[in-house]
Amino acid sequence: MGITCTYPQTANSTASIVQPCESEELEILTPRPAVQKDVIFIWNLDIFKTLMTESYQEDKGKKVLLEEIDDLVLDLAETHFNYKDLQHYEMKNVYDNPLIDTGQNERQSNFSDDPEKSCHLTNDTLSVEEKQRFNKLASLCRKVKKSYCEKCRQNIDDLIKEEKRQQWSNVKQNMEALRDKVLSEAITSLQIINSRSSCVNILYTTSHLIPALAHVLLFQMGNIFKIENIYSTANIGKEKGFKMISEQFGNNCNVFVFGVGKDDEKIAEKLKMAFWKVADQSDVDSLHHALKMNYL
């Protein structure tokens, strides 16, 4: 059964006095890179957490490890991806929001007021204050994209705070043991897909987008999942999320959904997408064999 995490909300930033923008005109956030693929492989983030804890026979040991992982993820999200400022804004994808962006640096701001307000607005429909607010939000998204690309090239050990090193050491020890087993084979399957020019790996989470980016860093999969290919279905649900993802790559592509439970399977069947369960060693073995032999 899949593991779904709810991340705690951190204390809000203190709202600063709003200063006039240098420009009252709005610019569109850098658009998503245009990519055409024939086959899309959609992975549930819960798969990798499930595989991480599969070897634990005792619920207590599994629970402790998951808590340590979630704590490290939250810390990475706050340290490198401005989660404290972005936690109230439910982004489906960093490129999915047509936010306005003047290119200015973000100032400390509280985005909790009206976080669901639509950004599909123009210069004529926004007040000066709204333009400033959305420009700051767009600037933060731009910063997240830049940070993700930079951090993916760095050693994960260097991204963990000093006070979290012992906790990371415990998690890392478990990860390294699993990398020789099920997790390593799952990552090899991802790499096989990445090596095919007509295919793309997509990662989705049912929680907030920003912690999902931190999960990718922690599991050292940044070279596999590009930031534009990481999604959150928290606000729209899996069914709409899968449709949205497939539409990004055209209506003629084949879609495979990899999940851990019946929910993923039912939605995939409803949308006429192929489904492959990935919840334990045997599932990973079968998937790796199918990819290696070009059956999939």
Q: Would you kindly provide a written description of the structure presented here, covering whatever features stand out?
A:
With 296 residues, the protein is α/β, with parallel strands linked by helices. It is built from eleven helices and five strands; from the N terminus they run βαααααααβαβαβαβα. The protein has helices spanning 46-53, 59-81, 83-86, 128-151, 156-159, 165-179, 182-194, 209-218, 237-248, 262-270, 281-292, and strands at residues 39-44, 199-205, 230-232, 254-259, 274-277. The protein has a five-stranded parallel β-sheet, with helices on both faces. Helix 2 (59-81) crosses helix 6 (165-179), helix 2 packs across helix 8 and helix 7 runs parallel beside helix 11. The chain is globular. The two termini are 24 Å apart.
What spatial form do the alpha-carbon principal axes imply? globular
Number of helices: 11
Could you give the count of β-strands? 5
What distance separates the N and C termini?
24 Å
Q: Which percent range fits the helix content?
A: 40-55%
Strand order of the largest sheet: 3-2-1-4-5
Question: Structural class, please?
Answer: alpha/beta
- Which blocks of ≥5 consecutive residues have pLDDT under 50? 1-28, 106-121
Order of helices and strands: EHHHHHHHEHEHEHEH
- Tell me what portion of residues adopts beta-strand conformation: 5-15%
Radius of gyration: 20 Å
Give the overall average pLDDT.
Answer: 79
How many strands, which pairing sense, and closed or not: the largest β-sheet? 5 strands, parallel
